[in-house]
Amino acid sequence: MNALPPARRLRVAIIGGGFSGAAVAWHLARANRPEGLTISVIEPRPALGGGLAYSSEEPSHRVNVPAIRMSMAPEDPQHFARWLAGSGEIERDPDALWKNGDVFPRRRVFGRYVAAHLAPWLDSGAVRHVEAQATRVIRETDGAGWTVQTSAGPVAADIVVLAATHPLPAIPSPLASLVEAPGFIADPYAPSALAGIEPEASVLIVGSGLTSADMVAELDRRGHRGRILVLSRRGLRSRGHPDIRGEPFGDFASVPATTALALLKTIRATLAVARDAGVNWQSVFDQLRLQGPVLWAALSPPERARLVRQLRVFWDVHRFRIAPQVAAVLDRRQTDGTFDTIAARLVASNDEGESLAVSFQRRGQARIETARFDAVINTTGPAHGQALQSNPALQSLAEAGLIKVDAYGLGIETSLESRAVGRDGRAAAGLFVAGPLARGTFGELMGLPEVARHAESVAAEVAKLLDAVPLDKATNVNPASH
Which of 231, 284, 301, 430 is 20 to 30 A (C-alpha) from 264? Predict the structure, then answer.
């Protein structure tokens, strides 16, 4: 009797094994027939799921939202909270439990949760971890397949999903002269990046968002008691969580605003109604987050650009809140007089050997000040607009004209089906974008709930192709080999 032909498999290569890439792999593996897919996740870190956001071993780095609101399963909001309750992590970290009952575990714990749920699929071979750096992506000459070059060898694929990590913060040009200085920290999340800062050192942190708050908390945990100055163009510090969490409040989607100004007026009016009703502002922004895709879709490209240019910084500090444990450190240091935030623009810098001199101009003032610091930490936020230059795999696709920066400088131009759009304005067959790099199309895609939903939708789009790949291209690939 003749043997049956080998089962056809769709080969999927996911570039990036942080939360976005791991979530796409998990949704793909659990929602489809394992015999129909070969899923390779290309990630240089030894474990999948942590990525830049959730692999930090620093004890003071905590998730920024209550555990009850974090889940890789959008249909099951308490997926993480249940795992956490049975993991023993809360007993090992009693400070994770805040006084209002909310739990804010260390970030590495969430990374372990994601890895734990991927583990059965890795063990079965349905998902394969290629522990390597993706260096180049090549489309086959007939356009029906891909080869991902990695530091561990090539990976053949029918579908490629770009789930690359956040790019490092761009270094402001006035700080370029400090790049080689020992006291300048360009990558604040590098292992032990702050270990060399002495307890009494004076520190300048450039940028006042979530990463900036993390740095203050870590310095304090390490015993630092010197002066910390945080500088940003607007001097806005990330806000905190309410003592009593409420339900989302307001309605922005029934008649969505079509201009950035109209949206701002609607937000202000809703905040006023909420205040009169005794509802906290956080509930209004929670509703904005939930209805964000509708709001973004209602804006024309020029209005989207205006929103990003003029209002994004205000959105970021209200939407992306810091854990109360971190907020408590900032409040205490501010009361002690060892921490301050100012609104200023950088002017120049100089490595003076014994110290780092930084000149800046405070907002609303003409005088330029120069102060000297022992350390300068760059936390200006991910340079999403530079992702195509900083990541070699993305750079190779950009040079081939298969991807391009979106119109707002937020990441990669993407279709509504999450396919990458090339230089010719057409979506590339078999090339998808998952996670924050797609937010130019979908709007809010930085918070974990939104990223989880997007990962699930990308997995669904990929699954549609399971029966649409030519027989001679989707082959019975051995998951244990390249």
Answer: 231
